[in-house]
Automatic annotation (TrEMBL):
Phospholipase/carboxylesterase/thioesterase domain: residues covered: 12-219
UniProt-recorded name of the protein: Carboxylesterase
PANTHER family: LYSOPHOSPHOLIPASE-LIKE PROTEIN 1, LYSOPHOSPHOLIPASE-RELATED
Keywords: Hydrolase
Family to which this protein belongs: Belongs to the AB hydrolase superfamily. AB hydrolase 2 family.
Amino acid sequence: MNDASPQHGHRSPQIIEPQGQADACVIWLHGLGADGSDFVPVVPALGLPADHGVRFVFPHARELAVTVNGGMRMPAWYDILEMNLGRRVDEVQLRESAAYVHALIEEQVAQGIASERILLAGFSQGGAVVYEAALSCERPLGGLLALSTYFATSATITPSAANQGLAISVHHGTQDDIVPLALGEAGAESARALGHPLEWQTWPMAHAVCLEEIEAIGEWFTARLLA
């Protein structure tokens, strides 16, 4: 485990290196109020082979004032202005976070990882950021994993030709009371409308992840990076 250089005012990401040489990478964003360590325990549960060669990068969001939480400062990728089904957000901040993800991608490419072997993953707020970051990225990527999230910039995104047809896997809890299932479904349909092959899976859970879901994610990572 090591740290990359700080960028865009963010703390250095938490990084888990494979046992051998890294030849692929997953950049995985946490949700509101969490930090990069949130999904670190998931890595061993993915069931990847011991010689998988996948580097995991877990960035930390900066602290921002969050309007729907009474202006309280907390780790956030962007401000949420309203908690209705439309989920109005600060798109400038969201795109700043997406630009930070693009900088992390460039850092991995500079270290010898082909961009086609980089996957973006995100939970909740982090998922909204990686929808934007992946589909606007000027480098071709290996895939997008969206967990318990929504496509906040679906109406305003400028899609990149480099990622037309990017494979997307979306997971959502049927009992999610933070990001309603309908919001996740709408995001998935928006991505399909942009021409992306998309897998949609639901799980009997709230705003969380479950072991069966993590195992399914591991199978998807294996198919995208190790097949």
